[in-house]
Design brief:
The complex is a heterodimer. By secondary structure, chain A is an alpha/beta fold. Chain A contains twelve helices and 15 strands. Chain A folds into two domains: 4-236, Rossmann fold, CATH 3.40.50.970; 241-356, Rossmann fold (3-Layer(aba) Sandwich). In chain A, 42% of the residues lie in helices and 20% in strands. In chain A, α2 (34-46) links the parallel β2 (24-27) and β3 (50-53). The N and C termini of chain A lie far apart (55 Å). By secondary structure, chain B is α/β, with parallel strands linked by helices. In chain B, the strands form two sheets. A seven-stranded mixed β-sheet of chain B has the order 2-1-3-4-8-7-9, sandwiched between helices. In chain B, strands 5-6 form a two-stranded antiparallel ribbon. In chain B, α2 (56-59) links the parallel β1 and β2. Chains A and B meet through α3, α4 and β9 of A and β1, β2, α3 and α5 of B.
């Protein structure tokens, strides 16, 4: 019997982390991700695992640092302003080559902003976010079921590459409830040995986990090792979804909630015989540049949709050579572009194209 | 022939980077002696701070990590929760523990985490060039209080142990110094108690040690110790606080 369970996105991040083997969670309240912290406060204790409501996001991420160096899977979550506070800790995790999963349920910014859904932390998530030369893999689910698919991937990437990994959602995904097939909850976790963990030096030499390298050239050695790892991630861990047909006259590039809305737009336009394709990056870093270039090659007209200023737009421009017409529609400050305004934009684009022809 | 004095096994046989007359070398050694005596070296995990003692992990012969500035007690909290059978301690300076990390310090103490904290109070930021610390005493000259710390401009020195005393979660607080051989012995005894408390699951224990920084006190090592004995203890009285 294939039963279905109803989950909000925030609860789903929590349950998916638990079935991914997350042994430690620390969190600090911030809207719109509070349900996740609340969910973990109950479920982690039920599972005999560790939950700490910390005194700040700084403490949360540093607790995750301590749990991770102990060799267990660890997660924290927050929303945009709280994620800004965590950047120091994420940089240290990267510098110490420690795995961790950080959920960001984005809200409008800058500053305190508001508590509405937003995608304004794209640059912060995909460019490292904190100080120093580092990157973090970023996974952007578009639905509650996909949270169950990508959370185990996040933990696995973190362990495999010894890096913090960002799960990037927004207030809409966090608050929205959707049915989830029970099968999705059957996750088999790959276990990665962690001989580097600090567990006391019984029967081995003492070990250190640190990110300070004072000797000339020593830090660059770490940097080169990290860069080599990032190249491997770029080669091997790209994820995307493309929904393209040869009849498409335009290609939408969108991720997360925005891609979900784009799917509605595409369906509505189909009924008017207007064919539009969708390219949805699932990993925002590594960005699926080659895959986008291949997918877009027969179309040439691109519309980037974001719940922010043009941010992913830059990655799309970097991925596509000249000759593509790349347009943008986005709303900021927690405003979600409506299907109608996107449809109007697409019709206007197609009309001007016909005029050019 | 009988060996009366030797390097503790928990202390590596290498030269430290500390300035002459600095207290860190003595305190590193006292910690190592205590760890040897309690036979806990193989299950000890230490968290070094940002500051002069950041390189402590090179000097100790057990597992070590280094936390971001001010965050050792958040890191330690998680290590101890995940590995309750291990002995986890932080080694922190005054800037780390009582300025940038005050929040983490107070909340780890308030939660009553079963941790040991070695708090080295030398009254200045040593690594960055001798600026005023939260613990700099009134009228003490530093590179950011050139005419001496003045209450109306720089505020009062922070009495951290006295602040922590009121917290239910705190089990043991003691302030000691290094200005005489007998004080060094008392410091060691306090450290022994603080580690023993953790072994016995008694809860949060902190030992503050008033330590010399001759380089930035602009004093000779012996003068610096005398100054601590005569002046600093007026602001930071020695003894058991809780």
């Amino acid at each position: 019997m294939n039963t279905r369970l109803l989950f909000s996105g925030n609860d789903a991040f929590g349950e998916a982390a638990i079935i991914s083997g997350c042994q430690f969670y620390a969190g600090y309240p911030i809207t719109p991700q509070n349900e996740l912290t609340q969910y973990m406060s109950r479920r982690m204790l039920e599972e005999g695992r560790i939950f700490i409501q910390s005194e700040s996001e700084l403490a949360s991420i540093n607790m995750v640092f301590g749990a991770s160096l102990s060799g267990v899977r660890a997660m924290t979550s927050s929303s945009s302003p709280g994620i800004s506070l965590m950047q120091e800790g994420i940089s240290y995790l990267a510098g110490c080559e420690l795995p961790a999963v950080v959920v960001n349920v984005m809200r409008g910014g800058p500053g305190l902003g508001n508590i509405d859904p937003s995608q304004a932390d794209y640059f912060q998530s995909t460019r490292g976010g904190g100080h120093g030369d580092y990157r973090t893999p970023v996974l952007a689910p578009e639905s509650v079921p996909e949270i169950f698919k990508l959370t185990p991937v996040a933990f696995e990437l973190a362990d495999k590459y010894r890096t913090p990994v960002i799960l990037l959602g927004d207030g809409m995904l966090g608050q929205m409830m959707e049915p989830v097939d029970r099968d999705l909850l059957n996750i088999k976790n790959k276990v990665y040995p962690k001989p580097w963990a600090l567990t006391g030096c019984l029967k081995r030499k003492p070990q250190s986990i640190k990110s300070l390298y004072l000797a000339t050239g020593a830090l660059e050695e770490l940097n080169l090792r990290l860069q080599e790892r990032y190249r491997r991630i770029e080669e091997q861990e790209v994820r995307f979804q493309s929904q393209i047909s040869s009849k498409d006259s335009l290609l939408i590039v969108a991720y997360g909630t925005m891609a979900r809305i784009a799917k509605g737009v595409i369906k509505a336009l189909k009924s008017e015989n207007i064919n539009v394709g969708l390219f949805r990056p699932v990993t925002l870093w590594p960005f699926p540049s080659k895959e986008l270039k291949n997918s877009a090659s027969g179309i040439k007209n691109i519309l980037v949709l974001e719940m922010s200023s043009p941010q992913m737009h830059e990655d799309v421009r970097l991925a596509l050579p000249s000759g593509f017409k790349i347009d943008f529609l986005g709303r900021m400050g927690g405003i979600i572009p409506s299907e109608d305004e996107i449809i109007e934009k697409i019709k206007k684009m197609l009309k001007s194209l016909r005029r050019v022809k | 022939m009988k060996v009366l004095y030797k390097r503790p096994y928990a202390l590596n046989d290498i030269q430290t980077h500390y300035c002459s007359g600095c207290g860190h070398g003595i305190i590193h050694r006292l910690v190592a002696e205590v760890i040897d005596e309690l036979q806990i070296r193989e299950k000890t995990i230490a968290i070094a701070p940002v500051g002069c003692a950041v390189l402590a992990y090179d000097y100790w012969n057990f597992d070590t990590t280094e936390a971001a500035h001010g965050r050792p007690l958040a890191v330690a909290t998680a290590i101890k929760r995940v590995q309750p059978d291990k002995i986890v301690f932080t080694y922190q300076g005054d800037g780390d523990l009582a300025a940038i990390g005050t929040n983490e310090t107070i909340h780890a103490a308030c939660r009553g985490e079963n941790l040991t904290v070695v708090f080295v109070n030398n009254g200045v930021y040593g690594m960055t060039g001798g600026q005023m610390a939260p613990t700099t005493v009134l009228s003490q000259k530093t590179t950011t209080t050139l005419s001496g710390r003045e209450r109306s401009i720089h505020g009062y020195p922070l009495p951290l142990l006295e602040m922590l005393k009121v917290l239910e979660g705190v089990f043991y607080l003691e302030r000691r110094s290094l200005f005489s051989p007998s004080e060094v012995k008392k410091s060691k005894q306090a450290l022994l108690t603080a580690f023993q408390n953790q072994i016995e699951n008694k809860g949060f224990s902190m030992v503050e040690i008033l330590s010399p920084c001759p380089t930035y006190s602009k004093m000779k090592p012996v003068e610096n110790l005398k100054w601590i004995e005569k002046e600093v203890i007026k602001t930071y009285p020695l003894g058991r606080v809780k």
